[in-house]
Amino acid sequence: MELREFQGHIRRLASLPETRASVVSCYLRVEGGRLKHRRVFANRVEELRRSFAGEDAQLFEKALVPIERFLSEELHRGSKGVAIFSRAGRQPFFLALQFYVPLPTWMAADTLPNIYHLVELKDTYWRFVVLVCSQDTARIVSVNLGTVTLDLLRERPELRQRLGREWTKEHFQKHRTTRTQQFIGDTVKALSGTMAAGRYDHLILAGDPKMTASVRRVLPSHVAERLVGVIRKSGRSGSWEIVAESIAAFVEAEHKESKATAEELQRRLRTGGLAVAGTRPSYWALKLGQVETLVMSTEYSPRPGWVCRGCRLDRTVEQSPSRCPACGSRELEHLRIREAMLRLAEQRGCQVELVRDSGTMVRLGGVGCLLRFRPGEARRGPARARIVRDRSYSYSYSDSGVAEGRFGS
Ligand SMILES: [Zn+2]
Q: What is the pLDDT of residues 202-231, one digit of tens each?
């Protein structure tokens, strides 16, 4: 799956309008064309089934039908993970995505799709190129969201066995060195081309230590600055083995990058730069379209806020009033804040960085945002068009600069 297509799916899920019928979100581990944890899946279905009654129960059963059909008929042999979203009712919806990287086994039924694991996948399995070198071959392997999509093989032309016949040893060595340099030069040229054509931001060099070192010396600067790892492997390691290792190296590099984003967030907060941290400010910055990058700890799990079913007034505080202060409705439901933030970020095309094991993020309350412009500039700022388009939405600022907004006024 191409990245753009994948982003399109996520955005579509993030923007799906809510209806009365629940969306069943399934993330499942697959192996050899079958579900890996069939029993866990069956038990979870049973648990969810018991939570519904009446018409809701019927809608849930109807939503399960295409999921079961997909699982029994459509799984690819190479798939490691599948994400399925299904809803029955007046506005039925079905989307199933297969990946060559594992997904956790996780399932929920809620008014909106749960996109966390897709966002995590997008954040981690970005796209990268591996150059696998041995003494006489070079492979350029590009990896997209865990799918190996291209394997361009370059083979060094055979050195003719001239030694001892017409050439002296010295002559042969010289010839060999020239040929090697030419081979490396050609490989690097092909590599630059592949990276530019596919807009790849990350490169990993792997294989024979001598060759990778030689390649590294001649990388043009725009390619060298994208190098995130070198895997030294002498002898004849299989390309697939190396690709698997390079995925691990890439994931490691991605974690470092995420941590760097968390540090940038902290730096901006300390210097009064364009940033906010904590649940409430981050939520409102997202709603107002001020966010460039949403930075979230993978352990972030805030208590739910509340949202009014009648007028969509929402608050990130846990204690909900008995009636909505805006419309008087008693129909208040939980606002799942982490999911709501991810949906807003994807709807608005913000970058999302998920950060693992970060003390910085824990100190900052688990979530923060790098902003595109200051809250006070919202009305004149570049996001104005977005806000204006959202006509049912009104907003105001308190003295502390914290934005409060609501729908439907
Ligand atoms: Zn209300």
A: 898 988 888 899 999 999 999 999 898 888
Helix axes 116-124, 239-270, angle to 10 degrees: 110
Residue with token string 């799990």: 301
- In 112-220 the beta strands, taken as DSSP E runs, fall at 127-133, 137-144, 147-155, 202-207
> What pLDDT score was predicted for residue 127?
75
pLDDT score at 100: 75
314 Cα to the center of ligand 1, angstroms: 8
Per-residue pLDDT tens over the stretch 311-336: 989 999 888 899 999 999 999 989 99
Q: Which residue has the higher pLDDT, 11 or 133?
A: 11
pLDDT at 341 over 90: yes
Distance 203 CA to ligand 1 centre (A): 51
Instruction: Give the integer Cα–Cα distance in Å for 94 and 71.
Output: 13
Q: At a CB cut-off of 8 Å and minimum separation 6, what does 38 contact?
A: none
- Assign domain 126-254 one CATH number from 3.30.420.60, 3.40.630.10, 2.60.40.3360, 1.10.1610.10: 3.30.420.60
In this prediction the pTM is: 0.73
Segments making up each domain of the chain, as ranges: 1-124, 126-254, 274-409
Instruction: Give the fold, CATH level 3, of 1-124.
Output: 3.30.960
Closest CA to 203 of 185, 186, 226: 226
293 - beta bridge partners?
351, 370
CATH of 274-409, one of 3.30.450.20, 3.30.1330.30, 3.40.50.170, 3.40.1190.20: 3.30.1330.30
Please return the burial class of 17, using the count of CB atoms within 10 Å of its CB with bins 0-12, 13-18 and 19+.
exposed
CA of 330 to the centre of ligand 1 (A): 8
295 backbone dihedrals φ, ψ, rounded to 5°? -110, 120
Q: Distance from the CA of 312 to the center of ligand 1, in angstroms?
A: 6
